[in-house]
Amino acid sequence: MTEAGKDVATYLARRARWSPFEIAFWVLAFATIWLFPGKYLILTETAILGLFALSLDLILGYAGIISLGHAAFFGLAGYTAGLLAKYELINEPVLALLVSGLAAAALGFVTSFLVLRGSDLTRLMVTLGVALMLGELANRFSNFTGGADGLQGVSIAPIFGVFRFDMFGHNGYVYCLVILFICFLIARRMVYSPFGLSLRSLKGNPLRASAIGIPVNRRLIAIYTVSGGFAGIAGALLTQTTAFCSLDVFSFERSADLLLVLIIGGTGYLYGGLIGAVIYKFLQDWIASLTPQYWQFWIGFALVVIVLIGRERVEGWSAAARASIYRLGKGLGGRSAPDGAAPKGH
Amino acid sequence: MLTILFDGIAYGMLLFVLAAGLSITLGLMNFINLAHGAFAMAGGYCTVILVNRLGVPFALGLPLAFVVTAAIGAVFERALYVHVYARSHLDQVLFTIGLVFMSVAAVDYVMGSSQQFVTIPQALQGQFNVFGIGMSKYRLLICGLLTVGLQLAISKTRFGSRLRAAVDDRRVARGLGINVGAVFAMTFAFGSGLAGLGGALGAEILGLDPTFPLKYMIYFLIVVAVGGTSSIIGPFLASILLGIADVAGKYYAPKLGAFVIYTIMIVVLIWRPQGLFARSASR
Amino acid sequence: MPILQTIGLEKRFGGILATNDVSLSIEKGARHALIGPNGAGKTTVINLLTGVLRPTAGKVILAGSDITALRPHQRVRLGMARTFQINQLFLDLTPLETIGLAVSERLGHGSDWWRLVGSRSEVTEEIAEIIERFRLTDIMHQRTAVLPYGKQRLLEIALAFACRPQVLLLDEPAAGVPDAERQELLATIGELPADVTVLLIEHDMDLVFSFADRISVLVNGGLLLDGTPDEVARDPRVKAVYLGEELDG
Question: Considering Cα of C162, then C165, then C169, then C174, what sign does the dihedral take?
Answer without folding.
Answer: positive
